[in-house]
User: What shape does this take?
Amino acid sequence: MNKLSIISAIIVLILSGCRGGNKQSTDDIITVDVMASYPEKELILQDFMDVEYIPLETNDDFVCQGLMEDIGRNIMLVRNRINDGDIFVFDRKGKALRKINRKGQGGEEYANISRIILDEDNNEIFVESSSARKILVYDLYGNFKRSFKYIDTSY
Assistant: This one.
């Protein structure tokens, strides 16, 4: 009986503590009247961000859809929006350096590209192939280095 009284008292204290916590006053709540007319304000991106426009070199071998994947100090990685497997390597001035394509079903190839991460310090490209739940690592020339699988919940 004594244990039951102690447990009941603890539960009552916990519940009363939950009810009486910090309450936000209605003066602190921001409300926006969506029916009102507000003045239009022009925002210029360069006023609050550092913006750099880099035109990418285009030639017969380097026609890409410009899906930017990663930008390093010296290298930019770009791919197409369609899943053709092409990874375009540009320098920071937009000069085309090389095109890599390791799409396939082999152990050193990716079935699709979900995302690409550049590790410029180690001259490596990490390609996530989500359909295979696998990350493949290549050097900056497209030579296979290693791969590892990941579990479903690590996305």
